[in-house]
């Protein structure tokens, strides 16, 4: 454990940020899995609803700086492409 007060604070702050970022990334992965599961089940209505929710979750993660905006855009694009390919 660090002895300097500022170093102790940095450890606490970085741990808090790590936990928060991990929770956000986990929720993004869960949302993506829901879309992929709906696509695999060939359920167009559920896939579109899940895509809407996933897009929102991914955009919020990008806004908070958890994901780079291009990374977020790529994730959304791939999900949208999978849903639209169900046709």
SSE order in H/E notation? Answer: HHH
Spatial gap, N to C terminus = 57 Å
Number of strands: 0
Residue windows where pLDDT falls under 50 for at least 5 positions: none
Determine the mean pLDDT.
Answer: 96
Number of DSSP helical runs:
3
- Overall structural class, as computed from helix and strand content, comes to mainly alpha
Strand percentage lies at under 5%
Overall shape: it is: elongated
* Largest β-sheet summary: none
Characterise the protein shown here.
The chain is built from three helices and no strands. The mean pLDDT is 96. With 87 residues, the chain is mostly helical.
Q: Can you give me a brief rundown of this structure?
A:
Helices cover about 85% and strands about 0% of the residues.
Secondary structure topology:
Blueprint: H1 5-40, H2 44-63, H3 69-84
Helix pairs in contact: 1-2, 1-3, 2-3
Features:
single chain; 87 residues; mainly alpha; 3 helices; 0% strand
